[in-house]
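note to self: dont lose this again. the chain is below, predicted strucutre after it. 153 aa total, dont forget to put it in the shared folder this time
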Amino acid sequence: MASSGGSAETLNEHHRRRLLVTCQHIDGMLSELEAVLNQSASKSAFPKYIDDIPSVRQRRIEERIARVRVQLTRVLEDQGIPPPIPFVSASHAVHVSLRFMNVSVEELRPKYMRGYGEVPVEAANDLNGIADELQETIRELEREVSREENNES
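---
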């Protein structure tokens, strides 16, 4: 990306905000590309993509993704636009996601599943067992996240 050098003084507040938002959007799409490339490493129970990119090509793609990020950073620096400072902690984001997971699991219970049709007693017992098991595992994960926070504080 070529820098025009003097644009920092000529871009108004709206131009600068648009440039920043576009760079952030591109970075987000690059993160999505990385997630696609790293899907096999995630061990997802329900993969979305066929892992058909050889590791050599994947490394080259990752190198080019890194290059685009360097260019995005340079563009903002050249324009005198500071990158925004993150304001959400990773542990908070994990806690919120775990809460949403817990709600999703809770909605597997028979009293919620009745909206999809009558739930036989045996199926109700199965659903409660499934919900109990998943919620216990999520609670273990929550405790682990909290433990790490408490150990580092």
